[in-house]
Amino acid sequence: MGTAVSLVVIAAGAIMVWAVTTTASGFSIHTVGIILMAVGAVGLVLSIIFWSSWGGFGGSRARRGGSTTVIER
Questions:
Q1: Considering the domain boundaries, does residue 70 fall inside one?
Q2: Which three-class secondary structure state does DSSP give residue 49?
Q3: What is the mean pLDDT of residues 35-55?
């Protein structure tokens, strides 16, 4: 789950917790919203932790090694 998807899931969960006032029989909409927010938060934290291993913006190329061979004629 990427950063953008995590933020969307957190937003959907927040809407379900604080903006939805309807009731449903069989399950709690507020509980589903809290679960979505928790899953989104975990996804966001994991995205931030593993950002460096995914490369980021050119990060993997900068770490590769650094020896460049130039051959002149």
A1: no
A2: helix
A3: 87
> pLDDT (tens digit, 9 = 90+) per residue, 17-40?
999 988 888 889 999 999 999 999
Q: Is residue 61 part of a domain?
A: no
Q: Give pLDDT, residue 65.
A: 61
Residue with the two structure tokens 């927040």 = 14
Whole-number Cα distances in Å, 48 to 6, 12, 14, 27, 41: 11, 20, 21, 32, 11
> What domain range includes position 21?
3-56
The one-letter amino acid code at 38 reads A
Residue 67, helix vs strand vs coil? coil
